[in-house]
Sequence to fold (278 residues):
Amino acid sequence: MWYYSKNNKQIGPISDATLLNLFSSGKIGKRTQVWSPTQKKWLPLEESAIGKNYLKKRTNQHLLQLDKLTYIFRALLFVLTFCFGYKIFFLFETLDAYSAYIAIDSPTEKLQIALVCAENAMLDNLISFILFVIFVFSAYFGYKWLDAVSSISGMLSKDYAHSSISVVCSFFVPIFNMIAPYKIISDIMEAALGEKNFKVYHFSIIFIWGIFWLSSIFTYFAETCLIPEKCMPDQIVPFYFAKIFATAVYMATAFMTLILASSIYSMQSRRLKMAENY
Fold:
């Protein structure tokens, strides 16, 4: 049986389960003084036996969830980056083949090059489809990862003011995703670091990621509105260079997101392991 102190009043006796329910619902905190016949004096909940065990289990649960989601999310980002790079390779191959097609007069050689171009175009379409599928999975697990990271940030820092819903919406709702993500990522990293002052390394990661994040959004709209699906023969070279540039921006964004996710995961898991409770 347990007793706890609130507003200078001793309340109890209550069961172990009731005490933990009061804590999990926010009615009492980690610093609330508690006592039971098994301990010699009143202690903060976080220093009592029941508090230590409960908080340790909760820490382990969050670590397991963070490990699992980060592993899947990073794997998808790595595959996404690789596929973008492969797509750039095929775009260059097709552009080189077209340049060779113009320079050659032999009908036989022109036919061979045309077949190569057709094969590259088919492979490019296949890679585009694979990229779309991977992107959908990456968006889903990115949402799950952001939700977990935001929840942990709220536990690591009292100054962290973003709810999980607002974080996810800020990344996936148009217009908002051009404004809010940079601030949210900064706050998540501050909570993970346990301090307000960034080092150059932390600032650089967020700053570079923010540039590519915004660039990828603007590039997507530009590619959708300005780059046609097909073009005239005299426009093939600028057409392919525009496609290569857009794909390179997406690849760099995926790669920087991979670095950012790895950094946040490393900082949060280190904080959770160092602190027996939070």
The chain has a mean pLDDT of 81.
